[in-house]
Every structure is written in C-alpha cells, then in structure tokens.
C-alpha cells in the first residue's frame, strides 16, 4: 500500500492547472482531493482534508491563497508569479508562527530552467556584461517573467559578492523601454510572441567572446516533474523556500 499525500489544486482550469490535474492524477502516491477555480471558496480546502495546496493562479490571488493555506496548517507549493520582496517578507512572518509548515515558491518548475539560471549566475562573475531575454506566449499577464526576475537576482548576488562592476553601457538617450527593465542592475528584455511557451536566454559578454545560456519549455509538460517534486518534498522543508533549487543538490 503506497502512502498517499492529499493535494488540493488552485487554478485547476488554467493552462498550468489543467496540466497539473493530469500529472497529479497519474501519480500513484498523490490524491487530488480538491480542484478549485476562480469562483470557488477557499473554505472547501479545509473540508477536503488537503495536506498540500498547489497554487497555479494569478499574481493578484496568490498571496491570499497561500496565507489561507498556511493559517490552516497546510503546506503550499506555489508556481504563480508576483512574489516580490514585500510579499515574501509577510509570508516569512506568517510562517514564523507555524513552525511545521513548509512553503515552496518556485518561479520555474522546469528542471532545465532551474539549472540554466544556476549556471548563468555562477558564470556571470567571469563576464563584463550580462543581459537576459525572456520570451513567452502572448497570453502571459506579467512582465518580466518570474523566472527572469529570479535569474537576475541570482546573477546580481553572485556579481556583488565577487565585486564585479555593473555591465558597461554608454546609453545616454533612450526611447522608453528600449533597454528593457532594470532588475537589480541586470537588464531584462521581454518578448511576447504567438507560438512560444516559455523561453529564456542569458547573454554573457566579454572581450571577443559571448556565452549564451538558453532554456526552452516547448510544452507545459516540462513543468510537471518539478511540480511533483515540490509536492513530495515540501513537508520535509518547513519555512519558506524560494526556488526549486532549494530542494535539489546542484553542488554549485
Ligand atoms: N513556476 C512555473 O514553473 C510556472 C509558473 N507559471 C505561472 O503560473 C501562473 C498561472 O499560469 P497559467 O496557468 O498560464 O495562467 P492561466 O491564466 O491559464 O490560469 C490561471 C487560472 O487561475 C484561475 N484563478 C484566478 N484566481 C483564482 C483563485 N483565487 N482561485 C482559484 N483559481 C483562480 C483563473 O481563472 C485561471 O483559470 C502564472 O503566474 C504563471 O506565470 C506558469 C507556468 C510555469
Ligand atoms: O506564464 C508563464 O507561462 C510562465 N510563467 C513563469 C514565469 O513568469 O517565469 C514560469 C515560466 O516562465 C512560464
């Protein structure tokens, strides 16, 4: 008899949610006890007996959803974007009162993407210049992507710790937006194009050379091994974990 984990899914009718329903249903150790859409009450999570709540909703809903889960002693695995520093700080404060509860905020569940961001961060201190191009489907509501923000933060931390100066840039006149957005000192450019799913390039430049670290999600199936890994591990990681790399042994 395989021990079962009871899982509730928020955003079950969305692009990611529909894929996650299939992945959870196909997992022998997971039971989907609730699948909620936009107009469903969070109260039904309590009666469902869910141990773990997976949030794949929209940036404006995710904080309240996760708060509800934590306040009711449920672990949360969160793929939704929009977790800025203020939201993370409020969540950490809440978790301090719930010592056994774990929350994973995963900007990207694709293992290749997590690796690409980690490799890019490690490489970034060896290059003068670094910029990020993220490319997504045109139905995406937020820009830049959560993955690009996270990658820029990892890069910025590595470069700051190594004392690497800002990327050189002589721009003095600029049509607004032409140089992308500045995320912790790293320029991020967002492309929205029909036919795409989720893609990112980190461009690293030095005298006479360029290294490009690119990851492509061609299908949302790419995110599912990471979603399942998050569900299976979140209870063993109490407190807040940002990034699926927190559950992996990247050895970097
Ligand atoms: N971490 C990762 O690997 C990935 C993260 N994402 C992120 O996940 C989120 C969802 O992406 P998509 O599925 O493409 O969006 P989507 O718009 O297709 O789906 C979101 C769904 O959530 C529903 N919803 C909104 N508020 C809700 C609430 N309070 N309770 C329950 N359902 C609610 C909407 O009605 C919609 O059906 C976005 O923030 C996206 O950036 C997307 C792909 C991968
Ligand atoms: O909206 C999407 O599609 C995606 N959102 C996440 C992000 O903003 O990084 C993850 C992935 O890029 C797909």
TrEMBL record:
Binding positions for (S)-2,3,4,5-tetrahydrodipicolinate per the UniProt entry: 137, 146-147
Cross-referenced PROSITE patterns: DAPB
Region entry Disordered, spans: 160-181
EC annotation from Swiss-Prot or TrEMBL: 1.17.1.8
Domain Dihydrodipicolinate reductase C-terminal, chain residue ranges per copy: 114-243
Chief place of localization: cytoplasm
Residues of the active site: 136 (proton donor/acceptor), 140 (proton donor)
Pathway as given in its UniProt record: Amino-acid biosynthesis; L-lysine biosynthesis via DAP pathway; (S)-tetrahydrodipicolinate from L-aspartate: step 4/4
Subunit structure: Homotetramer.
HAMAP family from the UniProt entry: DapB
Protein family membership: Belongs to the DapB family.
Record NCBIfam families: dapB (TIGR00036)
Protein name stated in the entry: 4-hydroxy-tetrahydrodipicolinate reductase
